[in-house]
Automatic annotation (TrEMBL):
Its main location: cytoplasm. It comes from Alkalicoccus luteus. Belongs to the PlsX family. The lineage of its organism: Bacteria, Bacillati, Bacillota, Bacilli, Bacillales. Its EC number is 2.3.1.274. Pathway: Lipid metabolism; phospholipid metabolism. Pfam families: FA_synthesis (PF02504). This is Phosphate acyltransferase. SUPFAM superfamilies: Isocitrate/Isopropylmalate dehydrogenase-like.
Amino acid sequence: MRLAVDVMGGDNAPDAVLEGCRTALNTYTDLHVLLIGDEQKISGMESFGERVSILHTDSVIDNEDAPVRAVRRKKDSSMVTAVRKVKENEADACISAGNTGALMTAGLLHVGRIKGIDRPALSPMLPTTDGGGFLLLDVGANMEAKPEHLLQYAVMGDIYMKQVRGLNRPRVGLLNVGSEEGKGTELAKAAFKLMEDAPFEFIGNVESRDLLDGAADVVVCDGFSGNLVLKSIEGTAISIFSILKQELTSSLKNKLAAAVLKPAFKRVKNKMDYSEYGGAGLFGLNAPVVKAHGSSDARAFFSAIKQAKQMHDESVTSRIKDVMSDISVKEEYHD
């Protein structure tokens, strides 16, 4: 697999990005990486020989940049160049921890959408208490959506969980304020009707309070709701671990107890740590484009690379294309 990497994107770039790449190269002997960024800041990759290439660029898209304007004005930026290499068939997939909106824009402009998919979805895996995780889509690629878009998200999520996560019949749920049919907005009600007859295991509405308990394997919603769920889960996890740390170091007795329980707390942290679940795939594009978390450390970036490789090796994009060419989502599911 040939992977184009935006070395300069993310809060911890380039060090965390490069360390994640080194781990991936040591793990996957068939991986070839094109590192795109400031060559003066790229080092320690000589031992991988021809499996690593470096393409220098001075331009970087910052998180503060307006996505559309940045992609158009910074055509030689590390991010846009990485995406363009996929379009030019010099890479099979690309990954960046940089500006989410800019990566989405670049993906649409250069890689393009799969025929039959109206809007790509930003789709991360999130942790569950049983360690299995669930796929949430969309989490911000599109703030508003139509019922057909949610149906398309569900189809793509179903394919991903089958091909990459190995589930025979992924449970697909629709995020709502209640589990009963007829709850929620007009969007949710209309999407529910479409999904009832869809060719996947639709389990109905699921509430946000049940997500971490593994209520569904795929959870579908509009980007606005999904982003709120994502940020709420991340913020809650950070706050809980912060409170625990304060309490466990507040007295000698608590410190002694913490020492005994340290292995258990470490297991809990690892189970709920986003870095174990990779990045967020931009589902619906013509090739794998993966958004790593902006604050990714080396382990998180490696996990994102692992996700991109799985998407490539399991031909997720091709399988989505096949499904969308075999059926007309809008027509068949409306009949």
